[in-house]
Amino acid sequence: MCINKKTSKLGIGAAAVVAVSLPAIAPAGAAALSHAPVVRLQTSAKAKVGSKYVECFSSDGKLAERLSRDIAKALKSRTSMASVALHDRATKTTCTFNAHQRQDSASVVKPIVLGALLLAKKGSLTQKEQTLARKMIKNSDNEATTALWRQLSDLRDPKRPDPVQIQNFLDAAGMKETVPDKEGSWGLTQVTATDLAKLLKLFTGTDNSVLSRQARIYALGLMRNVQDDQRWGTPAGAPEASTIQVKNGWLQRSPDGPDNPFDRGDWKVNSMGAFTGNHYNYDLVVLTQNNRVPANRAAHTGFIYGIDTIERVARAVHHGLHPDQSPAQGYEPLRPDANLRPLNG
After folding, report:
1. How far from 3 is each of 45, 95, 100, 157, CA to CA, in Å?
2. Residue 59 CA: distances (Å) to CA of 70, 182, 226, 274, 284
3. Smallest Cα–Cα separation from 311: which of 335, 294, 292?
4. Of 72, 76, 187, 221, which is the most exposed, with the fewest CB atoms less than 10 Å away?
5. Cα–Cα distance for residue pair 136/127, rounded to 1 Å
6. Is 5 left (phi over 0), alpha (psi -120 to 50) or beta?
7. What are 293-336's pLDDT values in tens digits?
8. Phi and psi (nearest 5°) for 214?
9. Comparing C-alpha atoms, which of 254, 315, 312, 326 is closest to residue 77?
């Protein structure tokens, strides 16, 4: 979905969805009161961006309207393409925008690799595996990721490592939209905001059927301790009292001149964050692509543009969920040095 300043239009609508459960036979008199229908009111609201909609469902109708409107406002002036998925357990709120669109993962595939490793080893990692996992998540180290990707792959054809154990994890986690790269280019794995939200839900949830509680705590612990200059993106504006777990990814797909005019050395910039602790319990994924480098500008300008898009959405989400704590008192991440050309991560 291309968000173009000239053509984007913002429209808001809301509708209430009611689920009613009725007993087969309602008793007469006072007894009927104890068997009254169970009514669960879920309100939907949507706001238009170009030809697509930000759509939110919530038990709080005003919250659904506020989030859909503010996320759309954050996106409508951006020229990059974006996908968004939000899930807040406390208010039973979900918001999505273009959430099933497949995009290059860059380094947001690394928590998937970690999940696959924990599943394959039943949560019991060797010292070497722990070192590689820490480097992969905390420092976004690409060599460590390649080593673990190959460990989790069938290497009968060394030039085409088949990531069978990665796929096993995706199947177990219900991440049906994710497509691993079968030539070993893990950063070109195709992911969606929907599937990455499922991954965060798995890590922060209570279901032990895929990963044990200890394995999930371990994964979140690594994401909680990523190095300071990689904590941008979805954490921007998060409540200060929340515990932030984050993993970002960035990739310049065709730096030497693309064959496809759609991709002219543009940046893919992605961020996924889980916000827990105290009364917080929500996950946010924002994926962007087509962050173009203007003519005669330094290559990193597309990278920074993608970060800006993500952080506009993040601030809208955090403020919408917790208006008294964000963005005025929200978390301010360290931004990458705009004077340095970033390596793919």
Report:
1. 20, 18, 16, 42
2. 18, 42, 34, 21, 18
3. 335
4. 221
5. 14
6. alpha
7. 877 787 788 999 999 999 999 999 999 999 998 877 799 998 88
8. -65, -40
9. 312
Contact yes or no for 61/14 (Cβ under 8 A): yes
The answer to whether 268 touches 106, Cβ cutoff 8 Å, is yes
Residue 242 is encoded by which pair of tokens?
Answer: 């929340």
Instruction: Copy the structure tokens of residue 309.
Output: 């898009």
Q: Give the gyration radius of the chain's Cα atoms.
A: 21
Return the pLDDT at 35.
55
Across all residues in the chain, what is the average pLDDT? 87
Residue 135: CB atoms within 10 A of its CB come to 18
What is the residue-wise DSSP string for 71-118? HHHHHHT--SEEEEEEEETTTTEEEEESTT--EE-GGGGHHHHHHHHH
CB 56 within 8 A of CB 64: yes
Quick check: 199 and 112 in contact, CB under 8 A?
Answer: yes
Model pTM score: 0.86
Euclidean distance between CA atoms 105 and 186, whole angstroms:
8
pLDDT above 70: residue 343: no
CA-wise closest residue to 210 among 116, 88, 136: 116
Q: Which two tokens stand for residue 301?
A: 């300008």
Rounded distance between C-alpha atoms, residue 75 and residue 210, angstroms? 35
Cα gap 140→152, rounded to integer Å: 18
Q: Mean pLDDT across the stretch 190-207? A: 98
On the CB side of 144, CA atoms within 13 Å amount to: 22
CB atoms within 10 A of CB 165: 20
